[in-house]
Backbone:
């Protein structure tokens, strides 16, 4: 799962509940070829945009980790 080239949604939400905490994992390692680095940076940006949107819509807490 850690090599998956797109954001992955994992949840245990029960019907009628809201998210209290959201965790976004990004890869900040810049020791890659320029083409690979560009793709990874775009993926990190997508993860952060999606996580930010969820935090605002759910009034929840955002944690960011480096994977």
Residues:
């Amino acid at each position: 799962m850690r090599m998956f080239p797109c954001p992955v949604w994992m949840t245990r939400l029960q019907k009628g509940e809201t998210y209290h905490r959201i965790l976004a994992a990004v890869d900040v390692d810049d020791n890659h070829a320029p083409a690979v680095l560009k793709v990874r940076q775009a993926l990190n940006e997508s993860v952060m945009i999606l996580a930010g949107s969820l935090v605002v819509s759910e009034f929840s807490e955002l944690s960011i980790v480096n994977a």
